[in-house]
């Protein structure tokens, strides 16, 4: 493939959001069939999620979250670990000088105790050793006895202080292997270490597989090594302190998107595409004179400035952005990479934002449940919001916050020439229905509980207070008959126990979680679709909520019958001409 010319200011922009599973499974296809053809005529911003080979629950982000929690929960053994660490650290330094190995040396125990700056471990270690040698009276004569040299060196180490600003910024000439960085005893004590090592090996293997240029691969592996060194230091610090703030948790999670962009960028550059990583985690933002309504406006402006300063044809952007005056994971949630894509689209005033999935678009139902489900060619922004709210995993609600003038196009990552689904932000439901076929989509929302309480009772107040405390439980719908109120909550069993204990007089209508079957579609024939769908649900639904009618009707069905009812309802609607 020939090298592309440098980016021109006259080229139009396009923004693409690519999921982590697609990047992990179809990286070469993305480079050759999505990015390369478009890069000849436009400038691209590609927003990446973290890699995920198996499923979202077992992906990089979930692993990082679990590692952060493990590190914070291991505080109980930190005193014993710190004592053992000091002894190992001293023995490690003695061994280093005895061996007199000129290669960069590392201590995995050094960073959490003495490296608050985040400087890569090999540079910190080398600086520490150099300072010790300078202060040691025997350092200039390496031919002296090993005992005298190591004794004076250790003494000087104890009295030395490292100024991290003095450490050279050049990357190390060589990288130690995982076994050299962490010995067996360390691996057993840090419960999170094996998980992070597995992630490191996975990303290293991805670079070797998809990057054919040796120099580019070496540079990418060096950058990844620095990233993992920093992560090891952060997690070890969390374990030492026994504290994990919301901001630190999201900084840990943000490594996943960064690694994903490094792998993709290396693959693009190896195909002679003009690509570079643009990080948005250090935006120039001033919150001292900013109110809540101006936050996203300032973020958009800062993103525009950051992207404009890079002249590459393809800008590969990690999904994490900030710093913000609030915790991104707690406010936006794990869909922050979709929000990042919509902010980039607003910053660049693009006409269309592309979302690449492993399905052909937004379908009438999950194709794994209803095999004959068809693609919906066009839906409105409001209908897409309803789908995202009630369990459709194709579209994230954060992506829909882009300006209404921007069309959103959902396409299959393996079939980029297929039409996919267009989410129209301007046309209303009535105008869209007049020119297109009737639309409906079925989705499932699991782990929903129906809690009933008397109106105005103390239990009602307590329940509302518990739900409003955070996003651990989500209020789906409410309905009232004038005397009692039923709240539909999506919550885990543990969360449900907490709620019912807080509102002791509340009555749990069902002693098991139910699944909501959501029927979302065009307004004009909503009543007709409801009349066809309701008899198809067997056994009959436990409850029906029409709080979002005519766009959405919710049926509470038993979880064991949920997928079968999706097939029944889809077949009934399809045969009914919808």
UniProtKB/TrEMBL annotation:
Residues 15-405 form the Aspartate/glutamate/uridylate kinase domain. GO terms for molecular function: aspartate kinase activity. Gene3D superfamilies: Acetylglutamate kinase-like (3.40.1160.10). InterPro entries: AceGlu_kinase-like_sf, Asp/Glu/Uridylate_kinase. GO terms for biological process: homoserine biosynthetic process; lysine biosynthetic process via diaminopimelate. Residues 137-154 have a biased composition (Low complexity). Keywords: Kinase, Transferase. One of its GO terms (cellular component) is cytosol. Residues 68-87, 132-154 are annotated as: Disordered. The keyword Transferase applies. The keyword Lipoprotein does not apply. Belongs to the aspartokinase family. This is Aspartate kinase. It comes from Ceraceosorus bombacis.
């Amino acid at each position: 493939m020939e090298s592309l010319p440098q980016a021109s200011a006259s080229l139009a922009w396009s923004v693409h959001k690519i999921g982590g599973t697609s990047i992990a499974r179809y990286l070469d296809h993305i480079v050759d069939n999505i990015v390369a053809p478009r890069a000849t005529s436009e400038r691209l911003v590609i927003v990446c999620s973290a890699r995920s080979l198996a499923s979202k629950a077992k992906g990089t982000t979930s692993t990082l979250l679990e590692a952060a929690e493990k590190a914070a929960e291991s505080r109980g053994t930190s005193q014993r670990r710190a004592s053992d660490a000091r002894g190992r650290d001293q023995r490690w330094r003695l061994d280093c000088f005895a061996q007199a190995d000129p290669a960069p040396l590392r201590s995995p125990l050094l960073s959490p105790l003495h490296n608050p700056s985040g400087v890569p471990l090999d540079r910190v270690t080398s600086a520490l050793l150099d300072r010790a040698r300078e202060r040691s009276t025997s350092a200039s004569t390496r031919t002296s006895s090993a005992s005298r040299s190591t004794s004076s060196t250790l003494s000087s180490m104890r009295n030395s202080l490292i100024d991290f600003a003095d450490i050279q910024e050049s990357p190390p000439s060589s990288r130690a292997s995982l076994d050299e960085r962490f010995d067996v005893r360390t691996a057993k004590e840090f419960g999170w270490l094996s998980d992070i090592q597995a992630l490191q090996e996975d990303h290293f293997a991805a670079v070797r597989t998809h990057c054919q240029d040796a120099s580019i691969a070496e540079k990418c592996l060096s950058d990844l090594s620095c990233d993992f060194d920093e992560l090891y230091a952060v997690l070890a610090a969390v374990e030492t302190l026994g504290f994990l703030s919301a901001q630190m948790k999201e900084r840990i999670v943000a490594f996943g998107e960064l690694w994903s962009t490094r792998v993709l960028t290396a693959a693009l550059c190896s195909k002679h595409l003009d690509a570079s990583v643009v990080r948005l985690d250090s935006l120039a933002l001033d919150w001292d004179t900013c109110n809540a309504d101006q936050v996203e406006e300032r973020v958009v402006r800062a993103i525009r400035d950051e992207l404009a300063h890079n002249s590459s044809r393809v800008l590969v952007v990690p999904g994490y952005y900030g710093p913000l005056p609030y915790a991104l994971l707690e406010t936006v949630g794990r869909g922050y990479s979709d929000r990042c894509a919509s902010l980039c689209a607003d910053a660049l005033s693009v006409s269309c934002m592309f979302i690449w999935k492993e399905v052909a678009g937004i379908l009438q139902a999950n194709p794994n449940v209803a095999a004959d489900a068809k693609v919906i060619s066009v839906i409105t922004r409001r209908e897409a919001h309803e789908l995202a709210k009630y369990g459709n995993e194709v579209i994230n609600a954060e992506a829909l916050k882009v300006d209404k003038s921007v069309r959103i196009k959902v396409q299959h990552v393996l079939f980029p020439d297929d039409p996919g689904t267009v989410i129209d932000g301007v046309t209303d439901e009535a105008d869209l229905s007049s020119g297109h076929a009737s639309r409906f989509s079925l989705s499932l929302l699991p782990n929903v509980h129906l809690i009933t309480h008397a109106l105005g009772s103390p239990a009602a107040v307590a329940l509302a207070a518990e739900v409003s405390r955070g996003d651990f439980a989500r209020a789906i719908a409410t309905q009232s008959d004038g005397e009692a109120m039923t709240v539909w909550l999506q919550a885990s069993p543990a969360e449900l126990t907490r709620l019912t204990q807080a509102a002791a007089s509340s009555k749990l209508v069902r002693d098991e979680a139910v699944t909501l079957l959501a029927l979302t579609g065009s307004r004009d024939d909503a009543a007709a679709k409801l009349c066809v769908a309701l008899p198809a649900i067997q056994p009959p639904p436990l409850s029906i909520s029409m709080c979002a009618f005519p766009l959405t009707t919710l049926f509470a069905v038993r979880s064991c019958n949920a997928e079968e009812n999706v097939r029944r309802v889809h077949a009934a609607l399809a045969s009914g001409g919808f």
